[in-house]
Write a structure and sequence with these properties.
Blueprint: H1 9-34, H2 45-100, H3 107-130, E1 132-133, E2 136-137
Antiparallel strand pairs: 1-2
GO cellular component, one term: bacterial-type flagellum
InterPro entries: Flagellin, Flagellin_N
Protein name: Flagellin N-terminal domain-containing protein
Length: 144
Amino acid sequence: MTLRINNNVSALNTHRNVVTNSLAQAKNLEKLSSGLEINRGADGPAKLQISEQLRAQTAGLKQAIDNTEMGISMMQTAEAAMDELSRALVQARQLAVHAANTGTNDEFMQLADQQELDNILHEVNTIAKNTQYGKKFLLDGSRA
């Protein structure tokens, strides 16, 4: 009995080309489906390194933007409270000037001015003690 090896070189070449093309097609399909040029280190180590650095930088910038937006919101909260304080202090000044006019004010008028001034000062203290952003008190002096 003799052994005989039959081979079809053109069929083998065709098979090799089909396998090569199938692998290339799968790789291209993976890139298309993910939307990324680089899916793993084998796609290009240098490109992967650059890509990872850019991702890290992007994540850092996104966090910086979030932090800035939170800071702006905190400042807006403090500004609104300080506007209220300013309004109350202007009113307190007007009362003090009115109360200083002893020529036209009697005792009852000065007592009424003093009570209103006490109310304004209580309002100022309440605003200063209770203004907060999240759990951080902004105007109570604890951050000085």
